[in-house]
Amino acid sequence: MRPLLPSSLVAVAVALLATRDASADDTLRLTWKAPAGCPSIDDVRAATLREVDARAANSGVLEADAYVEQREATSWAVRLRTRRGMATGEREIEAETCDGVAQATAVVLALALVPPSEPEPEPERVPGAAAAPPTPPPADRDAGASAFARTDEAHALALGASLAAVSSTLPAAALGGSVTLAWTPDRARIELDVRRWASQSETVSTSAAGARFSMTSLGGRGCWAALRTHTFDLSPCAGADVHLVSAPGHGADANYAASGAWTAIGAGALGRLHITSWLALRARAEVVVPLSRPTFVVENEGFVHRPSILGAAASLGIEALFL
What we know:
The chain is of the alpha+beta class. Helix content is 16%, strand content 49%. The chain has two domains: 10-115 and 146-150, Double Stranded RNA Binding Domain (2-Layer Sandwich), CATH 3.30.160.100; 157-322, Porin (Beta Barrel). The chain has helices at residues 5-27, 41-50, 98-113, 143-146; strands at 28-33, 62-72, 75-84, 87-95, 149-150, 157-166, 174-183, 188-197, 200-203, 210-224, 227-228, 232-250, 257-274, 279-290, 296-298, 302-305, 311-322. The strands form three sheets. It has an eight-stranded antiparallel barrel. A five-stranded mixed beta sheet has the order 1-2-3-4-5. The protein has a two-stranded antiparallel sheet with strand order 15-16.
């Protein structure tokens, strides 16, 4: 008869390994998608569970989805979504290397697996003894990852209001108000805006005859956040506007209500400074070129206005981020 001891040891080892794998899967279910050359899902899982005492882990399964991307030569980011029961969370972590975001991810997941520590019972006071100085609180275990984590939440829409200025579309530089609505998927931005400009008058050079100009501009732009930090982003933008102008005449023997509409294209930049996770200051500046240049005249009097071949526009305001 063959001895059974070696096969029994193999069976026990296999059972122990299976129990360990099942325990890890019951604690953390991780999806890890990263470019080639980054740490593997097993590396991240092992680094996470290495920081956690299985006996201290919260009850229930922590589900985590992590998506890693390289944004620049020395800029990596991971978007991490977690779920435990009905509770969900999302954050973005940035680091200079893929190993850095993997290590930060492991720290964040380890913290999510460990329950809050129970407060230590207050020691009994001995009559007549001096009170011991309070024990300083332990260092925050998330301090290592705080340098990478963005605190602003991801939002899909932004509604803004701004003071706007334009230099060349009307006879003189004009101020106005702007309302914008933007869709902001990740770094991209698709923005619509409506601007109403203060009215102004212009006369011909030889008499008091002229026209009073009123203008509304309807526009759209596409932007891309080329620079994005913890609190600030800067995006190059390009787009077009349709200018709707009315110019009723005055001061002539016969006055007429003229109107015009033309399109202008523009390119510039948009900067945003985040005040809170849902509120940001915004500023935009651009160069504009009209695709047509209608001429406004007073009949029998002369030339009043024609848009310039090149101009500039800017706005400064605030926007609310939601959804």
